[in-house]
C-alpha cells in the first residue's frame, strides 16, 4: 500500500514497517510483525509461572506463583475488559462472570462466610485465567508470543521429563522443596508399564499431560507453512504427553492428530465430519441401553477396572446432581456412594455440576459454546490466521471431549481458561482484519511493508468521482492540489475479500510511470 492510500481520508494515519524487517520471513511471521504486543512481559510471567512446583500458605489458603500473579492482575484486567480496551464485551465474557459469581455464591452458601478466601481463590483460578488470555492476547503478535512461550516451557521441561520417565526422580520438585512447599507423588502416581509417570513441575501426571496436549494442534498450525517443522513439533508434544502415561491426555492427543489429518486430507471440509458424529451420537442414544456418554467412558480408558470405576462414578455423581440441582454440594461436600467407590470424580463436567448445581454447568457450557461459535464464524481472517484458528479449535475440541473422562484443577485449569480467552481475538473482525499478510507491490520490487494497526478500520467506499481526465492520487498535499484546480483520484478501496486489491480508476499502462507518485517508499 503506497503513501497516497495510507493518507487518504478513508484511513487513519499509520506507519508501515520498513521492508528489511519483513524480508525473508514466512507468512505467519509477517502476520505477527504487523501488530504490537499488548503486554508481553505479563503474558510471559503467567506462562512461565505455571510449571513451578512450589506453593505456600497465607491465612490458611494455599497460593502458587500463578495464583499470586492472578491476584495482582485481576482488578486491572477486569477494568481493561470493561473499559473496552480488549474489544467489545461478548456473550462469553458475561457468562464467564456469571459463572464465577455463581461459584462464589454456592461456595459461601455451603462453607460459610469464613471461607471467603477459599471462594476468592477458586474464582481467581477460573475467571483470572480467562481474563489473562482475553485481555492480554489481542492480536496475532500476542497469540504467537503465547505459543512461543509455551514451546520454551516444553523445551525446558523436556530433559527433566525424560529423566523422571526412566528413573522416577523429579529434580524440579527436589530443587523447590528446599525452599518452598512442593508436591509429592502418591504410590499410584509412580510406575506404570515399567516406566515412571511424569509429573514434572505439576501436581499430578494427568496435569502434565493435559498441559502438553493443549499445545499440540496450535504449535502444528503455527508452523503449518513449514510442514517438516510442524510435524516435528507435534511429535515432540505427543511424546511428552505420552510420558504422563495417562489415558485422558493421550486420548486428547489422538483426537488432535486425527482432526489434523482430516483437515489435511479434506482441505478443511468439516461439515461431513460433524454430520457423521451427530448421526452416530443419535444412533447410540436410540439403539444402545448404555447411551453415548457411558460408551465413551467405558472405552476411553487403559484398563477395564478404571472404566468400571468411572461408569459407577458417573451414575452416582449424576444422581447427586439431581438431589442438589440448584446449589450443588459445594467444594468440600460429600456425596452418596457405595463404600467401595472412592470420592475421586474423574469427569470435569460432572464435578462442576456436582459442586455448583445445574446453573453452574449450564452457564459454563454456554460460555464455552458461545466463545467457540464466535471464533468459528469470524470472516475477516487471513489464510495464516485461519490456520491458527483451526489449531485453536482442534485443541479445545479434543480437550473438551476428553474432560468427560478426567478432572482438571489448579494452575492448569487457569491455563486452560487463559487459552480459551486467548482465542477470542479471532472473533473480533476489527482487530482480525488489521493483521493482514503483506502483498507485493505492483512494481515487482521486494515487499515494501505491511500496513496494520488495531486502530485502523475499513470505511465504506467513497462516491465515485469523475475520472475522465488523469489526476494526481490523493496525498497529504491534496488541499494544495484542490486549490490548484487539479482533481485527485479516489483512494484504493479494499473489498470484502481479505486480499482483494482495487486499482486506481486511471491505472497507468505497462512501462508508464505513475504521475505524482515519485516518492512511494513505505515509512
Instruction: Give the overall shape.
Output: globular
Spatial extent as radius of gyration? 27 Å
Structural class of the secondary structure composition?
Answer: mainly alpha
Strand content: under 5%
Output the strand order for the largest sheet: 1-2
Which bin fits the share of residues in helices? Answer: 40-55%
* Main sheet overview: 2 strands, antiparallel
Q: How far apart are the termini?
A: 11 Å
SSE string: HHHEEHHHHHEEHHHHHHHHHHHH
Strand count: 4
Total discrete domains: 2
Low-pLDDT runs of 5+ residues are 1-25, 27-34, 432-481, 490-523
Query: Helical region count?
Result: 20
Mean pLDDT: 79
Oligomeric assembly: single chain
Concise structural overview:
Keywords: Membrane, Transmembrane, Transmembrane helix. By secondary structure, the protein is mainly alpha-helical.
Task: Please describe the topology of this protein.
Layout: H1 3-6, H2 27-33, H3 40-49, E1 55-58, E2 61-64, H4 65-82, H5 91-111, H6 116-136, H7 140-167, H8 171-177, E3 191-192, E4 195-196, H9 205-214, H10 216-222, H11 227-242, H12 247-266, H13 271-287, H14 291-299, H15 304-323, H16 348-376, H17 383-402, H18 410-422, H19 429-432, H20 478-483
Antiparallel strand pairs: 1-2, 3-4
Helix pairs in contact: 3-7, 4-6, 5-6, 5-16, 6-18, 9-11, 9-12, 10-11, 10-17, 12-17, 14-15, 15-16
InterPro entries: WaaL-like (IPR051533)
Region (Disordered): 437-523
Transmembrane segments: 39-58, 64-82, 94-110, 116-133, 145-166, 206-223, 230-260, 272-289, 348-372, 392-420
Amino acid at each position: 500500500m503506497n503513501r497516497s492510500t495510507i493518507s487518504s481520508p478513508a484511513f487513519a494515519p499509520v506507519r508501515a514497517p520498513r521492508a528489511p524487517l519483513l524480508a525473508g520471513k514466512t507468512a505467519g511471521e509477517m502476520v505477527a510483525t504487523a501488530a504490537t504486543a499488548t503486554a508481553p512481559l505479563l503474558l510471559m510471567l503467567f506462562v512461565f509461572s505455571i510449571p513451578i512446583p512450589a506453593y505456600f500458605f497465607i491465612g490458611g489458603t494455599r497460593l502458587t506463583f500463578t495464583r499470586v500473579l492472578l491476584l495482582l492482575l485481576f482488578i486491572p484486567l477486569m477494568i481493561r475488559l470493561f473499559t473496552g480496551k480488549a474489544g467489545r464485551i461478548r456473550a462469553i465474557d458475561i457468562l464467564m462472570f456469571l459463572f464465577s459469581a455463581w461459584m462464589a455464591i454456592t461456595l459461601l452458601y455451603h462453607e460459610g462466610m469464613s471461607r471467603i478466601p477459599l471462594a476468592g481463590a477458586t474464582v481467581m483460578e477460573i475467571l483470572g485465567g480467562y481474563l489473562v488470555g482475553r485481555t492480554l492476547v489481542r492480536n496475532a503478535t500476542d497469540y504467537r508470543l503465547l505459543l512461543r512461550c509455551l514451546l520454551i516451557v516444553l523445551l525446558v521441561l523436556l530433559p527433566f521429563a525424560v529423566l523422571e520417565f526412566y528413573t522416577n526422580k523429579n529434580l524440579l520438585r527436589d530443587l523447590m522443596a528446599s525452599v518452598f512447599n512442593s508436591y509429592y507423588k502418591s504410590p499410584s502416581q509412580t510406575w506404570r508399564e515399567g516406566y515412571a509417570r511424569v509429573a514434572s513441575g505439576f501436581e499430578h501426571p494427568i496435569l502434565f499431560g493435559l498441559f502438553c496436549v493443549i499445545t499440540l494442534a496450535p504449535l502444528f498450525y503455527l508452523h503449518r507453512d513449514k510442514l517438516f517443522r510442524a510435524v516435528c513439533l507435534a511429535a515432540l508434544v505427543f511424546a511428552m504427553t505420552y510420558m504422563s502415561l495417562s489415558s485422558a491426555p493421550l486420548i486428547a492427543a489422538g483426537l488432535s492428530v486425527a482432526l489434523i489429518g482430516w483437515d489435511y486430507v479434506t482441505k478443511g471440509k468439516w461439515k461431513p465430519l460433524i454430520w457423521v458424529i451427530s448421526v452416530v451420537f443419535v444412533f447410540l442414544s436410540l439403539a444402545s441401553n448404555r447411551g453415548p456418554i457411558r460408551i465413551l467412558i467405558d472405552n476411553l480408558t487403559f484398563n477395564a477396572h478404571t472404566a468400571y470405576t468411572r461408569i459407577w462414578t458417573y451414575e452416582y455423581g449424576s444422581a447427586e446432581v439431581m438431589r442438589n440441582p440448584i446449589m450443588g454440594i459445594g467444594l468440600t461436600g460429600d456425596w452418596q456412594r457405595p463404600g467401595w467407590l472412592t470420592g475421586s470424580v474423574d469427569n470435569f463436567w460432572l464435578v462442576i455440576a456436582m459442586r455448583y448445581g445445574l446453573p453452574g454447568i449450564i452457564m459454563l457450557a454456554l460460555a464455552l459454546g458461545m466463545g467457540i461459535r464466535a471464533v468459528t464464524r469470524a470472516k475477516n481472517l487471513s489464510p495464516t490466521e485461519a490456520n491458527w484458528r483451526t489449531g485453536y479449535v482442534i485443541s479445545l475440541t479434543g480437550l473438551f471431549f476428553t474432560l468427560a473422562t478426567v478432572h482438571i484443577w489448579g494452575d492448569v485449569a487457569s491455563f486452560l481458561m487463559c487459552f480459551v480467552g486467548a482465542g477470542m481475538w479471532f472473533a473480533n473482525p476489527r482487530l482480525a482484519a488489521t493483521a493482514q499478510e503483506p502483498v507485493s507491490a505492483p512494481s515487482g520490487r521486494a515487499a515494501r511493508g505491511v500496513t496494520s494497526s488495531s486502530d485502523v478500520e475499513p470505511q465504506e467506499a467513497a462516491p465515485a468521482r469523475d475520472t475522465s481526465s488523469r489526476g494526481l492520487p490523493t496525498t497529504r498535499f491534496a488541499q494544495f492540489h484542490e486549490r490548484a484546480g487539479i482533481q485527485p483520484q479516489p483512494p484504493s478501496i479494499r473489498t470484502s475479500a481479505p486480499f482483494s486489491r482495487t486499482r486506481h480508476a486511471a491505472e497507468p499502462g505497462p512501462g508508464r510511470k505513475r504521475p505524482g507518485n515519485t516518492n512511494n517508499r513505505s515509512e
